[in-house]
Amino acid sequence: MLLVGFRGAEPLDAAGRALPILEQIPRLNLGGVILFDRDAQLGTPGRNVTGPEQLKRLNAALAQAARGAGMPPLFIAVDQEGGRVQRLKPANGFPDSPAAADLCPDADADGQAALAAGTATGRMLRQAGFNLDFAPVCDVNVNPQNPVIGGIGRSFSADPARVAACAGAFARGLRSAGVLSVAKHFPGHGSSTSDSHLGFTDVSATWSESELAPFSALIASGQADMVMTAHVFNERLDTRHPASLSRPVTTGLLRRRLGFTGVVVTDDLQMRAITDKYGLKEALGLAVNAGADLLLIGNNLAYEEDAADKALGALMELVAEGSVSPARIRESAERIRALKARALSGEHE
């Protein structure tokens, strides 16, 4: 249930010592890892990505750490949306990926540009050893000045139907290359006026039901391999917690009303919308009880080498205390295993 970030671009350091994450994967039975090209805490490039050949070596070692322990395939994930959010950049020897805002003109009724971009992105990621892309963005461009969505070109369109068409096409492109997609950021981040990376983000006055349409469409058509919940607060949906920690949103709205039965992943639980108000253990407990399956800890906005150990320890404490039921844990584990068996089973052959 843990998907974590780590530091290091080569499997072995200059002294021949293996990266700590390679030991943590089998010991902690990690579900996945996420790679970044830049270390956000240090403000330096080259955290996990410096070039195509280096990246292949690193991802092969990560996959082998799970394979060698007889584990299910490891989710090896990256944020490769295109435009401002691409971890595999031309500066490091990778093809440029266009922004969502440039891929969905009204004249492109079938989303062919988005399909082509998704296919190209999927092939590039697969060649590099990734099997999971935290894309496409399904947020509707309600607020074009939104500092974290519309203002930086991450939304396909202001029209929910266009977002649905182009996000679905992008997801199909990824899947055609053997890469899983993630519809984000549920139930919609497009109307926000602030950035949940930086603090509390309230969309109570700006969000509308129309922002659910792209998610509903991708779920109904089976094009959402995962759905990512957002750290946005909406008092009309939950008077206490942001969506990522909200049972009314994750279980009530996403699972029961929209009928999503697959893997729900949280946005990064180290974003300040969460850490400014919740400790790690409290956030993990709320997210799991809300119905989240995969708990994303980017370990980049803040870094701790033992972040995965701490998160697993907190989860075990929550179960031991009776705050989280073993049945709830098993439910998520079964969803994750089922997705890996369906989509990634060939990776260990």
Low-pLDDT regions = none
Number of E strands: 12
CATH architecture type: Alpha-Beta Barrel
Percent strand equals 5-15%
Output the CATH class name: Alpha Beta
How many whole angstroms does the radius of gyration measure?
19 Å
Mean pLDDT: 96
Helix content: 25-40%
Sum up the overall morphology in one term: globular
Domain count, please report it: 1
Record the strand order, biggest sheet.
8-5-2-1-12
Q: Main β-sheet, in a few words?
A: 5 strands, parallel
Strand-pairing-aware structural class: alpha/beta
Alpha-carbon distance between the two ends: 23 Å
What is the string of helix and strand elements?
EHEEEHEEEHEHEHEHEHHEHH
The CATH topology annotation reads as TIM Barrel
CATH homologous superfamily heading: Glycoside hydrolase, family 3, N-terminal domain
Molecular structure report:
It is a single chain. The chain is 36% helix and 11% strand. With 349 residues, the protein is α/β, with parallel strands linked by helices. The chain has one domain: Glycoside hydrolase, family 3, N-terminal domain (TIM Barrel, Alpha-Beta Barrel), CATH 3.20.20.300. Strands 8-5-2-1-12 form a 5-stranded parallel β-sheet. Strands 9-10-11 form a 3-stranded parallel β-sheet. A two-stranded antiparallel sheet has the order 3-4. The model has no long low-confidence stretch (mean pLDDT 96).
